[in-house]
Amino acid sequence: MVDVFSAASSTTAFLGAEWVGFETMIEYVEMIGNNPALHYDQTLQPHARCRGMTMRFEQVREYIIHFFGLPWHNRIWTLQEYAQSKHVVLHRTLQGALLSRYLVNVGAHLTKCCSSHDLYPAYTTYGFEILGKMRAAFAFDTVLALLRTRQCYDPRDKVYGLWSYGPRENRWPSLTPNHSFSTLEVYQKVFESSTMPGTLDILSFNAGSRHLDLGLPSFVPDWTAAMTPYDFETFSNRISVLTAAGYKASKESVPDFSISNSGVGKTPGIIVDIIAVLQQNDYSSEKERL
Ligand SMILES: [Zn+2]
Known about the structure:
The chain is 36% helix and 4% strand. The chain is mainly alpha-helical. It folds into 2 domains: 111 residues, no CATH class; 139 residues, no CATH class. Zinc ion binds next to loops.
């Protein structure tokens, strides 16, 4: 499907029936998307005002939250419609390029001035930058890790839904989509392919709470593991360190990893320190299933 979307001159993504407030939401997105100087915090000037309403109005916030809460924004297969198409129109009228500009502008304000953090579901991750890096430098397992909160019905599609984004020569052959393999086999193939070049980075991708009985060894990441928004943010920050240019904690040492007949993974290590206390976060009750 990646090839189909790439070849199409235009793609229309249908997000479901229109809802009350749709037109207002579109106007708001256009306003912010076309003017990066506009604050959405109404206490700052100049700020966005649509049909006489600012973000202070609960109604406006609800319209926007409803839009970004639609399943389309967080499914794994819909990434193809958005990231691969030359031109995409969402829901009849909203230009994909305009939505991108809106997200960029809102993101810039979030980091420096405007303080409303509740406009989007925590897992709205578009991943365009991530997919772009996949074409250039990111390994497949890193992309998989950073987009792990994208959802799908079949756990194997966490892998298969992303596999075709990279250059053909970089696609791990063992992961060629084949639904005759079980989820356990597919996730094990990810682990094996990841460690093949002589790196154990994938051990750092184990995170979240496992909630499906997939029969996975603990050292094989479960890409369906549930994460709180706080956990995912921490996880993403850790990956950004791991993938930073020049970072190589193990230097030139070659990993020594083996799996025993009983399925136990073994690798030598060094105890640098022991963590005595972990700070509790405030999001522990917000477990969401992916
Ligand atoms: Zn601002």
